[in-house]
UniProtKB/TrEMBL annotation:
Domain Photosystem II Psb31 protein: 72-162
Signal sequence, start to end: 1-16
Organism: Ectocarpus siliculosus
Name of this protein: Imm downregulated 23
Matches recorded under InterPro entries: PSII_Pbs31
């Protein structure tokens, strides 16, 4: 459907720019002369060509997104976000225990990426996870180590994130592009 619309749009727009064919005249001698002869285009013909091209482009643009891909809400991308960004968030536990607020501020985007990847299908859970993540980042930004520990613990409890995530239904492993272990230290293969 989309291909047909694009083809029609190209055909319609190309017809607006048709160059008249040249007349080839042969004379009695062996040489041929080439002469361009065409009736001049009237204003109404030019406008009809323009409107035809515009209508074809409008028809192609009016077709809704036929190939609407929503891969951000698939189980594979949710698992990948949980594995990659979740492990980075879980690795911050040592920094939280030491009161290193700068480490949390440096990794604050992991919280947002984790939430948007894992909770992409549930707006209520996403909103709650975002609120908890915001409290973690605000406590780290303020330099309050006690509030950081409490908010981090609440976030980890809500997301049920444990260090070294090995979730159920991970599939075939790091050989897949969508597996969270792909291109991470967990997916490293050592050969002798």
């Amino acid at each position: 459907m989309k291909t047909a619309c694009v083809a029609l749009a190209l055909l319609g727009s190309s017809s607006a720019f048709v160059v008249p064919m040249a007349n080839v005249r042969t004379t009695s001698s062996s040489s041929t002369s080439l002469a361009m002869s065409s009736e001049p285009m009237t204003r109404s013909q030019a406008l009809s060509n323009l409107f035809g091209a515009t209508a074809a482009v409008a028809a192609a643009a009016a077709v809704p997104g036929v190939a609407f891909a929503d891969g951000a809400k698939s189980l594979a991308t949710q698992s990948r976000a949980r594995g990659i960004y979740g492990n980075r968030i879980a690795a911050l536990k040592g920094a939280v225990d030491k009161g290193d607020t700068a480490a949390i501020v440096a990794e604050q985007n992991c919280f947002r990426l984790f939430n948007s990847g894992v909770y992409s299908t549930d707006k209520a859970k996403f909103a709650e996870a975002e609120a908890l993540a915001k409290s973690v980042v605000q406590a780290a930004g303020a330099g309050d180590a006690k509030a950081l520990k409490d908010s981090y613990a609440a976030y980890m409890k809500y997301t049920e994130k444990k260090s070294g995530y090995n979730g159920a239904g991970d599939g075939q492993g790091f050989g897949s592009e969508f597996d969270y272990k792909n291109r991470t230290p967990l997916g490293t293969v050592y050969q002798r």
